[in-house]
Structure formats: C-alpha cells, structure tokens
Amino acid sequence: MGAPKYGSCEVGVWGRDANGMPCLDLDYGRSVPGDPGILHPLASGRTTALADRFGRVRFLAGIDSRPVCLSMPSRFSCGAFWVRVSDGEASRTLLLGELLAAEAGRIRLGIGYVRYAGNLVLASERSVEFSLTFRAVPEQSWLMAELELVSRCRSSWKASLAIYSDVTFTGPSGAGGVPFAKDGVAMLTDLDPHVGDWVLSARERWQAEARAGRLTLCRSVDLQPDTPWQETFVVGCQKDCTLDRVRADLASLDAEELARVSAQRLVPDNCLAPERWMRDEVAWTQSCFFSLELPANTPQSRLLFPSLGEGEASAPRCRDLLQLVLPLSTCRPDLALSNLWMVAAAQHSCGRVPEELGQLAGPGNLDPRRDRSDLEIWFLIGWCDYLAGREDWEELLGRDCEFADGLAATLWDHLVAALGYVRDEVRCGRNGLVRILAGDSCAFLNGVGAAGQGESVLNSAMLVYALARLADLARDLGNTLFADQAMVWHQLLSRAVGEAFDDNWFCRAFDDKGKAVGGSQEQRLFLDVQTWAVLAKCGTSAQRETALRQALERNCQGDYVCSLSRPYGLPAPESVSRVALLPGDGENGGMLLPQVALFCWALVEQHMTEFALKPWENMAIRKRLGLDDAPGLAALHSHFEFSSQFAGCRSGGAGLAADRGTAGLAAHAVAWQTFAMHKILAGGQG
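RE: above sequence
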C-alpha cells in the first residue's frame, strides 16, 4: 500500500498511534527558522495544558469566564513541569531547547498527549535516552507525567533527579498560595478559590520542597545499563487537596486506559469521510476544537473559548462565540448552548450585543465609523440554528434570562430585542438593505459605510436566513402577528438581495454614495455574500447556481479558496477599507477557513455537493502543513487565515498581521473541518 495522502510535511510525519488515533511525529532539529511553533493541547474538560516545541508546558484554567495561565514559561519560568538530570559532574535539563543536534530531539503530538524524547549526553560522556510523556486526565484538573530513562553506559551510575513546577499565577491576594511539602508531595495551598491548590507529586517518596512560585521533588536513582527506569507524577490543581487524595489519584492512573478514554472524549464522532486521511483530519481537528473547553465559573458551567495561547487572555469576543455555535451545534450542542447563554446574559435590553463579554453595550451612541453591524444578526442565527429540531425548544424560549442591565426577560424576549435593534438602530438604507456601518462580519470593509449610508448585502442575506427561522418559531408559539411581520421583512430583504445580483454574482455592498462594491464593474467577487445568498435562498435558483459556479471558477484556484477574486492594493480605496491588509492576505483575497466551510455548505444546499470536496481538501490542516509555502507548525491549529496565490512568494504565510506570528490554539483554525464534512456527507446521502 502506498504512502497516505498528505502523510508528511517539512518537519514531521503523520501516523496513527496504538489507539488508532492520528498523531504527528516531529524532528525537533528540523524546525523551520522563524516558525512560532506549536502549543499542543492536553485537555481534560476542566483544564487545558499547552505543550510547546521546547518541552515546556503551560497550564490554563477558566477563572471569571476568562482562560488564565497558571504556569507561563518566561525568562524566569520553565513551565508547569520540567526535569534536571545530574551525574555529580554535569547537570542538564530534559528541555528540547537545550539538546544538541546530535542528541536527536523528537516530539510526538497525539490526541490528549504529547511525548518528548532524545539522547542526553552529560559532560562525563554518560549517555541516557529519555522519554517524557504528558497526558490529560479526563474530568480532572491535573496532568499525568511519565518519565522514562534508559542508560546507555556500560556500567551503572547514580543520577540525581530534580522535578520542578513553576507557578506564575499569584491568585487574587497576590500571595501565590501557601507553601507545603511532606512525604513526596509539594503544594501551594489556597492558590485561588476557583482552582484550589497547586500540587506536584510522584508515586515514590521523593524529597519535596515548596516555596513561592516553585515546587520541587528530588531524589537519586541507580541507572543500570540498558534497563528502563520509570516514574509517574501528577501536576496541576485540586480543590480541597489532601495527601491521601493525591496518593489515591496517583495509584489509580493507568496510561493505556487514559489514552483510550481521552481519545473517546475528544473524538466522540465517528466520521465516515470518504478517505482515511480525511477521517484522521476530522479526528485531529475535532480533538483540538474540544480542547478549548474550560469551566466558566458562571451558571453556564462550561464555555468553549475562541482561543488559548500566549499572554494575558482578554474576555471572549461575542462574534467568535456566536459564529462557533454553528460547528458546535453539529457535534457539541451542550457547548453551543453555553456560548449562546453567555452572550444572551451580556445583551442589553435594547437588544444590542457587545463586542466582548463583560462590556455593557447600551442604546444610542451607534457610531458608523466605529461600530460594526452584524452581532445581533449572528445572535439570531446562532439561537435559531440551535433550536431547530430540538424537542425542548419551547422550554428554552420561555426560560428566564436577565438582560445585562438587569431587566427581567425570557429568551424569546432576547430574540425579539435583537431583531428590534437591527430594525430600529442599525436600520436599512436606500436600497432596502441592512446598513454596514464600520463593517459587518468582514472588518476589512470599514470604509464602505463610515458616513452611515453604506449597505451590506451580506448582512441582509444573513438576516433573511434568520427571519425565516424566527418566523417559524413565532408561529409554533402561536404568535402569528410577529410571524407575519417577520415574513414581510423577510420578503422585502430577500427581494433587495436578489436585486443586488449583478450579471453573474451578488454584489457585496453599496458604499455611502450608492456605488456597488464587489460588482461586475470592478470584477471582484466576494465569497461570503454568495454563500449566504444561497443559504438564505435569495434571488432565483438560477442566480444562486450561477453565483456559486462563478465562485468556483474565480475564487477556487489551485490550493486556495479566496475570500475575494481580485484583491485591492495597499492602501485600498478609502470608500472600501482603511485597514492595512496586503493583497492576498486574509479578507483581502486571502483564505479564511470559516468562509471555506460555509461555502462547502452552500454548495451542498444548492445541490452541487460534488464540487464541495475540493474546497474542503484545501482547508485541511494536513494539506496546508504539507505545502511548500506553509507557515510552519502554526498551521496546525494557530492559523485560520492564510495568504493566497495573490500574495506571490508570501502565499500561505502570515502577511503583516502581528497576531498571525504567534503560537496558540485558535478555535476557527480547527472548528470548521468537521462541520463542513458533516454537511458534505449529509448532502451526499440526500
């Protein structure tokens, strides 16, 4: 049998582990210069650890609806767990960043685990092979660490080992917990009310030390020639921790069982994609996507965060939370519901949805130079899609949920308020289309409606989609007046979108002076508006099919599915954009994974499923990572925007955006592959 499709990349090889799950074996010595690298997730559902390419692990917990790093590697810290080995003459760490090229640093990234390995040579010429594996423990707030050492010397020798755990989070008091050490267990107690105590422990009785910011376990071991020495540890946080509980947890750990259970939890969906590599792609991205789940310390006990990674986390953006409801509804409706309730609780009684959780977005002060116009529409789409086909839809619509300003309300009141805000505040323009203001789903188009007159065909198509479903809900509730009124607006908007069809495709917008943006005159086809016009069934069936065929011809070229068929130069015309986005980058003719997935869905809805697999293949991580112009390991789960062929030698890379050059775990990079494949498979069955 030949090599699997997309089975290798510049720095590693894809395979399957003992549980039949996809894994990626990396050669540390072949890292791409300038590559921001990886932060591979180890998720339990209660916490998520992120392992980097140097062997360091950062540990995150959900505190006050934000992901907070408890152990951040820095100039002063090496992370949650690291090892030093000494033979009495020389001392070295097992961090891959310290290994020499000849010491063959290796990394295996698996679902729920990471393994670092290499051949460590001390100054005395004593050589030891090592393997250090970190595993997530389902529904626990700590990691299991397995250390194996094999001496390659001809005689036995005594090694001194030290295990360190650096804690950079100091808690609300700033004290960083109370140090405690006894019988091989080191702790920082009462670190934070939400996380409890920070713990480091081993199965054997090691000498334990604890001080502010660092826990240490030390012991000496006799290493025999070619004989494995092994030890198991736990590191992380626990509430109401005791010595007996720590030891009981350690005694109960079984690496093989953990691997099996973790794979089942992170990859619950048995996807029947047509090719094996596609099934592995779905399993890999799905596991990374679910790794963004953390406790939120709110009535919605879990939240799927839009990103985890570098630096201090900001509050989640509502647009991300709402957009991610679509892929979550396919595979984790419980998390979709949590995201929706979180945004509903942040909504003002006027109907306005804030940009971020924690903001209070009140009535008035809608500035077309600053405020975008799509959040309330995404709110309606998210709820309507989640409620579709659910048996408990009526109970959910009647459930109490206060607005952010304290006004009592039901969920139905929230939906009505959101629609009212679009109607009365965002409003429609001269062509009967929803105004665009400082941009809609596309922040790049912030110049189109800066004077308050520009209109968004995309917003209008999305609202048509939402109105049809909202009217159905109202009719099922017996509110025929609301349903009829919603359908009147639905028909007006649908007609206006249909009239924005310009020869071969739908225009993207109309600027403040009424000039078409993305029409036939400038020969620019925006992918997103063709997608939503099809999903909302705007225009005629012939127009929708023509628009999709034009998108396949103009936007789907080679290895890319471009957001725009012909990008603007830099700077773009002020009547279009005031964003410094290079041609071929992101929304200016680059490739955005959420747009590609929704385009696949539109092809299915228009009964063109046979054309959907090619765009899906182009959005696959395996393909992007294996391309000659790949942006390094960041393509694994950090990037969801890629430069396209319009960028020339930059294609596939990071462009100018500063946040594209950092490692991390971004939901939009791994959320949409499973969603799109589900739609394709459903279309094939239909």
